[in-house]
Amino acid sequence: MRLPIQIERLYLDFDGFFASVEQQARPHLRGCPVGVTPFAGAEHTCVIACSREAKLRGVKNVMPIAEARERCPDIILVPQTPDLYRRAHNALLSEISAVIPVDAVKSIDELTCRVAPADRDEPLTLAKRIKARIAENIGPYLTCSVGFAANRQLAKMACKAGKKLDERSYGDGCAIWFPRDMPAPLLRLELKDIPGVGSRMESKLFRAKIHSMADLLATQPKHMRKLWGNVTGGRLWYALHGYDIQTPPSGRGMYGHGRVLPPENRRPEHARSASRLLATKAGRRMRRDGWNAGRLALWLDLMRDGSCSRSRGLPAVHDDQAILSALQSLWDEVGDSLPPRARVMRLGVTLFDLTRASERQLDILLDDDATRRRWERATEAIDALNRKYGRTLVSIGPWTPPPGGYAGGKNQLHAHSARRGFLVSP
Fold first, then answer.
1. 262 located within any domain
2. 188, part of any domain
3. Which of 3, 215, 301, 410 has a CA between 20 and 30 Å from the CA of residue 64?
4. Is 189 within the bounds of a domain?
5. Is residue 169 domain-shared with residue 270, that is, in the same domain?
6. Can you tell me the distance from the alpha carbon of 292 to that of 283, in angstroms, rounded to the nearest whole number?
7. How many CA atoms lie within 13 A of 52 on its CB side?
8. Within this chain, do residues 276 and 172 fall inside the same structural domain, yes or no?
9. Does 170 share its domain with 61?
10. Strand pairing class (34-37; 49-50)
11. Cα separation values, 168 from 57, 58, 142, 185, Å
């Protein structure tokens, strides 16, 4: 385990990504407070992303629209356009890669890079080169904040700290934490500023008499491992103290999709139809990557009635018939527990307990191998047709996306650079 004496990591986070992409692509939105909503005419849902101008007026992500309008009466609400965001993501990756190799894509609007020795003494110059290339080749409204530090954990925290330097500005920041200056920048932060420390973990730390960043830094690695209940706590201690922590690669854990339903499509029958699309999309991605699922989960977020969830075991399958049959069984269970006149605001479907499709072991109590293989061949033929024509041409059962034409967001974006794939207005 090394203790770097120079900056070695860069963390980049785009500012209000969905909203800034909308501003870059649509000139009439530029300079205005913008809020992105799940679909058009969504007055009874939330703002899923907002522009820098809206954030300076007190609007936050996942804020109810009524509250957003109260804080910023002139906010302009636009429905999300996921395909536009994916094209922007791919184009941005291409431009950034021309300046510095991208080490890991963390999400659609975050990435990390290793800083070359030649750039470690002048990181601000590197940040300016990246921002200038984005502004010149894609557009000036897609701004980003950049953090530099000895390791990825500290670089991410520096990036977040540099995003909002004062009450009059937001985004387009750059924070540089040289190892020689540590831990002074950390001591200005709160415990909740550590990625992964939510309200529950913060309360747990308070009960352990850890009330500040100074208290946490003074804690021993073994104590932090005990507080977190696993090796994550110990790794975090070393990362906060500037060590180069290399987390071992983890296997794929799940494939899932979620969807906010439009107000007029929130009855259980609408949610059931939408869940079929989500399960089918998750199954496609799982098959493409060569996995089988051993369990399927369904969760529903109800308006005024809390939430509910169910899961069901699967015999290591990946074909649509097996996944949709299990989903039907889950809905049969859920139907009995839903309150009268239930309204489903959000839902999600997840495939997990994954095993490699090439290593499938048959259940000796379930003689379904011949049936499974027939359905797998049928599903492979369906996938081939849909890939060839670039859309859902064939499906098992009806394919009826809810209003808005967007079937659901996946839990992780696997991007492939596509230079100039994002077309913007001048």
1. yes
2. no
3. 410
4. no
5. no
6. 9
7. 23
8. no
9. yes
10. antiparallel
11. 10, 11, 19, 21
* In a shared domain, residues 388 and 267: yes
- Residue 330 belongs to domain spanning: 254-410
Identify whether residues 166 and 261 lie together within a single domain: no
Distance between CA 269 and CA 279 in Å, rounded? 16
Per-residue pLDDT in tens (0 to 9) along the chain, 426 residues: 789 999 999 999 999 999 999 999 999 999 999 999 987 776 777 898 999 999 999 999 888 899 999 999 999 999 999 889 999 999 999 999 999 999 999 889 999 999 999 999 999 999 999 999 999 999 999 999 999 999 999 999 999 999 876 667 788 899 999 999 999 999 999 999 998 898 889 999 999 999 999 999 999 999 999 999 888 899 999 999 999 987 665 566 789 998 888 888 889 999 999 999 999 999 999 999 999 999 999 999 888 778 888 999 988 899 999 999 999 999 998 877 888 888 898 899 999 888 888 765 555 445 566 777 888 888 889 888 888 887 788 888 888 777 665 555 544 333 333 333 444 444
Tell me, what CATH number does 301's domain have? 3.30.1490.100
Whether residue 166 sits in one domain with residue 38: yes
Contact 292, 360 (CB under 8 A): yes
Q: Residue 308 domain-assigned?
A: yes
Same domain, 276 and 173: no
Please report, for the domain that includes residue 83, its CATH number: 3.40.1170.60
266, 370: one domain? yes
Cα–Cα dist 128/61, whole Å: 27
Helix (H) or strand (E) holding 280: helix 268-288
Specify the number of domains making up the chain: 2
Q: Which amino acid is at 97?
A: S
Give how far the C-alpha of residue 314 lies from the chain's centroid of Cα atoms, to the nearest Å: 26
Exposed/middle/buried for residue 354 (C-beta within 10 Å: 0-12, 13-18, 19+): buried
Neighbours of 362 (CB within 10 A): 12
pTM exceeds 0.85 for this model: no
